[in-house]
Amino acid sequence: MDGIPNSLEDLAGKQVLSLLLALLPGLIASEIIYTLTVREKKDVVDRVIHGLIHTFVIYVIWQTFVSINNMYVEMGWRVVRGLRGQPWTPRASASLIGLGVCAVAWGVFAVWLINSNRLHMILQKIGLTASSSHPSQWYEAFYSMRGRRYVTLNLKDGKRIFGWPDLWPSSPKEGHIFLTNAEWLDVDNLPGDRPKLDVLIDVTDVSFIEFVPLLEISRKSDGQEPRSTKRDSDQG
Questions:
Q1: Nearest-CA neighbor of 39 among 112, 137, 140, 133?
Q2: CA torsion 62→64→66→72, rounded to 10°?
Q3: 218 CB-side CA count, 13 A
Q4: What is the pTM of this model?
Q5: Residue whose C-alpha is closest to residue 137's, from 198, 87, 209, 47
Q6: Taking 60 as the threshold, does the pLDDT of residue 71 lie above it?
């Protein structure tokens, strides 16, 4: 009688271990995606659900690969062994390693899809969605303009600072914007006499942001009046 509870506990422990091993590929992929993308924090239930979905995708990929591989290996085996038809089965260790490789590959591919917004761009073109894979319109604006625009931050106290955005948060509610080669602007929308600087600006101090094309900067460096200044003078 004393041996029955122990055997049940051993059986339950083995089942739990088998379940964790079965779900491990999806959990690995989920952790890669969660770490390398800018996403809203999920609770444990949501992350487990996403892990189950990724597990299903990974097993489909792996089983497809195994089926194709088995077909070619079996063909080669028959040719080499004189059509003896001896079966070939993958080792358990090879399956575990293969699932791990699939998990990492799928996780990295999903990170690329999310960060590049490629999947949502395709879905937008065929009219299935109008949303983006990025966490907010704020982040989408900075991401789409990265490497192509300077910014002018209009602060709530009336000050304006111009510079190159190197870092920005995923939300306008918290975090900082890091500007390099930044200059404080005077009332005429021109840089003052103070030297350029690298500065962190709290996003909660920002009223709104202007994205300035590089062409605008080249005109400004040539001594021409910036278009924003012309627009302000015309309105005045």
A1: 133
A2: -150
A3: 5
A4: 0.63
A5: 209
A6: yes
